[in-house]
TrEMBL record:
Pfam families: TetR_C_1. Keywords: Transcription, Transcription regulation. This is TetR/AcrR family transcriptional regulator C-terminal domain-containing protein. Residues 2-88 form the Tetracycline repressor TetR C-terminal domain. The keyword Transcription applies. Transmembrane segments: none annotated. It comes from Tessaracoccus lacteus.
Amino acid sequence: MLRAQEHWLNAWVEAGLDVADAVQAAQLVTAFVVGFVIEEQERTSERYSLEQRDEAVGPDAPHVVEAGRALFADADSRFDWHLDTVLNRIGLRLE
């Protein structure tokens, strides 16, 4: 498992990061992915019931209601958008 890191560390170093920054970037991406997966699993619970959320928010906050709908939009698209944002901030793109 440790040696498997060599490939992506090499790619990120060749892209302009030093090894320390590549490791930090990898930890950030790993934390994002794990957190995203945990949140997606939670979306199946009552905690993420759109009906209960809408009721709690009320009709006087339509943007918050709409934002809740965005939370349930296509998970793959959300994941791609979030990961792309993280990688762009790091200054890298996966190919």
